[in-house]
Amino acid sequence: MRVTVIRFLDELPAGTALAVFFDGETPTHPDVWSAVQRRYQGAPGQLMERRRWKGKLGDVLSVPWLGPEAGPLYIVGLRDENHPVTWETLRKACGGLGRLLQGDRVDRVALALPVLEDDPRMSLRAALEGLRLGQYSFRKYATTEPGEPELSVLEQVFFLDVPEAVVASAAEVATVVADAVALARDLVNEPPGYLSPERLAETAADYAASVGVAVQIYDEADLEAMGAHAFLSVGRGSESPPRMVHLHYRPETTPAGVLGLVGKGITFDSGGLCLKQPASMLDMKGDMAGAAAVLAALWAIGRLKPPVEVHGVLCCAENMPSGRASRPGDVVRAMNGKTIEITNTDAEGRLVLADGLVFTARQGAQKLIDVATLTGAATVALGNQIAAVLSNDEGLQQAFLASARRAGEAFWPLPLERDYKALLKSDIAFIKNSANSREAGTIIGGLFLSEFTEDRPWVHLDIAGPFWAEKPAFYLAAGGTGFGTRSLIQFVLDQAG
Ligand code: BES
Ligand code: MN
Ligand code: ZN
Q1: Is the CB of 349 under 6 A from ligand 1?
Q2: For 242-292, what is each residue's pLDDT tens digit?
Q3: Catalytic option among 276, 305, 327, 421
Q4: Domain segments of the chain: what residues?
Q5: For residues 291 and 263, is the Cβ–Cβ distance under 8 A?
Q6: Which CATH superfamily is domain 2-138+153-161 in?
Q7: Catalytic: which of 108, 264, 285, 350?
């Protein structure tokens, strides 16, 4: 996708589509709007009146034909009755626009970019990310009717009157971020019969190698040798063996710190012997969404090359019932020596992450972030638009939340209430993996993980709500959302200063 700056409307090649934005009834670029009105003798304004178009977010008024020289005109609403207009509003609006352009087979568009929050760079990023993500679809297994045209993709975007200095770098970041989110979505959408732990590991290795990120894959024998028995216990019931993937990005200059990102990579979560109900298994091919976000972030970081050292660790396993599967009542010893009584085989994410966190800390990570579709309780608490964040370090949590807000992803803190550790007390081991109660499920998940952070500052992201979209909305397609990817990338960029 090429990105070009133009100063005036008449520099546009004939037939190029134009998008203008309205915050309610107010055009964000009054000058551009009056030029458009003059050029088409007031027809767009008249159409707005007749349609009673009020510039609301999600409403795009399209004017397909205004004359032989003109391209289609899109009038895009930004006014959100529930939120102030931010970069994320623009990302959403452009997501809807992107999808519409695809349906209209428009591959060149000019944007009269609204500059929001006084930041043209972040505004431009949000617009481009929205356009590209809005055009995402998972077509790998789609069958097309004969003669059905291929969906178009945007080839060129013109920005009207944006400072030239801003454009190149912001467009590059937007492209890399949108590519990364699309990769995370693809991996979540990929059926579990294809994307086994081994395939996920190989895919990760390919993406990492393509951008100079070092990769090491650990198989069962390696995991055994390092004492990662909690991790291993999860994969035991599956015909597809578990894998731990270590991705390592080292900047060329002195790093501003060493960060560890750990992702839950359960390629299918049946629940194991504590088998789930059929309806609850439907989206469990996406139980590797955390690992997908970590891989996508490392791929992006390898392309953007910020001066921060980053370890990315993917904990890949399939949770299946079988004669070899671990049973409720079994006890396993994690890498840090702590013993775990498995009281519920469906609380498997915390078992792989326990060893993943210890491993990552021991690689030299000074700060840890884990990302996981860990608990259904997170969806009960916060719904499917907001992920939970828990932490043992207030400063790190605040820094993460600031980056997430810039990236446009919604997180909300839950308390890591130590008193609740009593609920995980085992009679025979150091800890049990599930309280088997309905109380504070997300907090309990966080408390369990906090025993495996090797005293590092740590943030836990429970993305069980937003990892998946039931239906398309703005820049989301139905299925995997790639949630978490944008915040992880932004956090690393912000650490670099
Ligand atoms: N992967 C699930 C959590 C989940 C549920 C993610 C729905 C996304 C959507 C996790 O492994 C799980 O099964 N958690 C249990 C924990 C319980 C056994 C302590 C849950 O949420 O019921
Ligand atoms: Mn589970
Ligand atoms: Zn799971």
Answers
A1: yes
A2: 999 999 999 999 989 999 999 999 999 999 999 999 999 999 999 999 999
A3: 276
A4: 2-138+153-161, 178-495
A5: yes
A6: Leucine Aminopeptidase, subunit E, domain 1 (3.40.220.10)
A7: 350
d(CA 288, CA 285): 7
Give the position, in ligand 1's atom list, of the atom nearest the Cα of 377. Answer: 21
Residue 477 tokens read as: 């397609």
Q: What is the pTM of this model?
A: 0.98
Angle, CA 424 vertex, CA 419 and CA 427 arms, to 5°: 120
* pLDDT tens digits along 195-242: 999 999 999 999 999 999 999 999 999 999 999 999 999 999 999 999
DSSP string, 171-201: HHHHHHHHHHHHHHHHHHHS-TTT--HHHHH
276 is catalytic: yes
User: Which ranges of 56-136 would DSSP assign to H, the alpha helix?
Assistant: 87-103, 120-134
Specify the amino acid at residue 385: Q
- Going from the C-alpha of 395 to that of each of 6, 391, 413, the distances in angstroms are 43, 9, 13
Q: How far is the CA of 474 from the centre of ligand 2 (A)?
A: 30
Bridge partners for 268 per DSSP: 318
Domain 178-495: give its CATH code: 3.40.630.10
Is there a catalytic annotation at residue 305?
Answer: no
Residues in contact with 10: Cβ distance below 8 Å, sequence separation at least 6, in sequence order: none
